[in-house]
Amino acid sequence: MEQKTPNRFTEALGEEVDDAFKKLASEILKDGALTLKEKSLIALACAVAVKCEPCTRAHKKQALKTGATQKEIMEAAAVAGLVRMGSGFNTAYALLDDDETGKKLVFKPPTRDENKHEEMGDESKPEGSKIQRKPDGYLNSILERKFVE
């Protein structure tokens, strides 16, 4: 008698666990405030963000089945890549901690004028106040421009 290889890890854990997982997935993915198509695109984006290639392929198939276009899939993946890149910058923000004092380092980012002075080799740079940098969401600047226009 040939033994069946489980398709999912939950199948290997047993029928009760697999059934519970399927029921949970079914409840979460049913149409609500978001459609199944929208949820499929979110799942695809999550798979891209966590860098799971088999998951990405599986969620692409699901998204196509729900009517997502290749363009929608690519945009969802691009958003995931942007979030992943941004999370890397937010993680790197921890490098601005001064380990000795436990405070954030204060620095003055170069202005365009200062960059010009550096290119010309001029050591006299315009005076400016130092600012403390805080992590900010890239969406804030986009939303501010959108609502100001």
UniProtKB/TrEMBL annotation:
Pfam family, one: CMD
Gene Ontology terms, MF aspect: peroxiredoxin activity
InterPro entries, per the entry: AhpD-like (IPR029032), AhpD_core (IPR004675), CMD-like (IPR003779)
Record's compositionally biased regions (Basic and acidic residues): 110-136
Domain of life, source organism: Archaea
Spans annotated as Disordered: 104-136
Carboxymuconolactone decarboxylase-like domain location: 16-97
Protein name: Alkylhydroperoxidase
Native species: Methanobacterium formicicum (strain DSM 3637 / PP1)
